[in-house]
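Regression report. Comparing outputs from two consecutive submissions.

Submission 1:
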Amino acid sequence: MQIWEIIRVALQSIRANTLRSLLTALGIIIGVGAVITMVALGTGAQRAVEQQIASLGANVLTVYPGQSFARGVASNNRVSLTVDDAEALERDGQLIQAVVPEIQNSAQVKYLNLNINTTVVGASPNWAVVKNYQLQHGKFFTAGDDAGRERYAVLGSEVPNMLGANPAGLLHQTLQLRGLTFEVIGIMAPKGSGGGSWQNPDEQIVIPLQTARYRVFGTDRLRSISVQIRDSVPLEQGMVDIERVMRREHKIRPGQDNDFQIRNAQEFLATQAAATQIFTTLLASIAAVSLVVGGIGIMNIMLVSVTERTREIGVRKALGATRINILYQFLVEALVLCLAGGVTGIVLGVWATRVLARANGWNALVSSESVAVAFGVSAAIGLVFGIWPARSAAGLDPIEALRYE
């Protein structure tokens, strides 16, 4: 028998039992679809974490207020960070490249007849550079603007939408912030939430630090101090340098606990990325079990088919079909079932990924590699689980097969 004749006979056999063939391939369809969906959602989540890590800026550590301790016991009073702490870090830090103090609070913002409540950040002019923000329109305020306590505002990318205005059209317009008039001089590019923070940085408004300190909030207490460590300096050494300056500034004696916290958001997100990868692998492995179950189902049905078609096999052998012809016929049937199930599963997996991602707002990424692997695995299952039934059919004695009832 020619190879095309073998394929034609195999396809005729599958068409003769369409419903049974569909049910046989169902395990492969579900398995391939589940694997693609799990891998796509996991890869999308991991890619989102990697983008967050990249958006944090290079070698940036953040200092937060902590608690005061008395004889090793934490008190209820939180120790404040002040502008003096930031100036000390900038002045005395040996491994520090830049320091960005931040005063942050929520405030009522009015534009025309609209009012919103959002986060207002008072920061130094190098805030955007250190924190890796990009400007979409306009410019950022300068050191002269900060020293002059100018009432300039740079808006996050979502603020114009919250105010119902065109981002480019808001440039050089005025808005009211706690009753004070501010001129909009810049609009930032979208950043996206990151660093494990519940706040959306695209919804904040940035103003000069001295303006926030003296005109808006009336305090020098900082929410945090972002510290950029010099290039090629390990972050661990940078932490030690920050700790040295802060302990001296807060007059903490040797042996006493710190009343401040130093956090590395990149380290947190890297751990999160590793955990996401582990869960993705675990879920994909669980989904892959259904592929094995589907392969066993195909082998079972093919063995039943061999039993049902024993007399047909005897007739074919009597007419000159060789063992290899019969072997190829049943292998092709198993392979076609698995490949058809694999293609259907790929379509189902891509569709399910898009539906879940859109319904829940998840990040998802269907890669060509995962599709190729799923297709290859389905073909391999057809070959592996079709060998036994095919060998059983090929090994039948033609005389005994013709006598089979």
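Submission 2:
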Amino acid sequence: MKLTTTTQVSLDGVMQGPGGPNENRSGGFERGGWAMPLFDNEARAFLVEVYGRADAFLFGRKTYDIFAGYWGVMDPSENEFAEALNTKPKYVASSTLTEPKWDDTTVLSDDVAAAVGELKAKSGRELQVHGSGALIRWLMDHDLVDEINLVTCPVVVGQGTRLFPDTGPDRAFELIESQTTPGGVIIQVYRPAGRPEYAT
């Protein structure tokens, strides 16, 4: 399986709390729900198509708790996202979660890199990571990410957790797909391409 990540980000790189005001208030974040008013039919259609390719999902602990509390209590017939999330295997990287309440969840607590490598070696289309910023950065540090989907919304949030922090490793990417929706949402698909080159 190919490991892909999908992240909704603002123009200033914020990924925290895109879906609703109370989705993730950690760190005193008060501007949740910034993405949903900007999502048009084309942006939603892209996400429906992405979720439809999933054979399994991988989460960090915080995103897992958010998704389990929202999507995990929905009837799979309510929409395409609920159907995918509630009918496919889920994996969560956590050293503290012992009794997951969301059906078909496996906790990865020992040698997560090896466990993810074993999942990627299975046949299938995609092992998908949604949200889970800390996990995405860790997976990239371990060269486990094959593609990243960035869904960039035309808004500056001005506070909150960013996908890539102010300091960290430098990375290059190869753009393999790009589109802009009528509402101004920019959808880009990248492959990691090692370290960037610098002018001399």
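Expected: both submissions complete independently.
Actual: both completed, but the second showed a warning that disappeared on reload.
Relevant detail on submission 2: The chain has one domain: 2-192.
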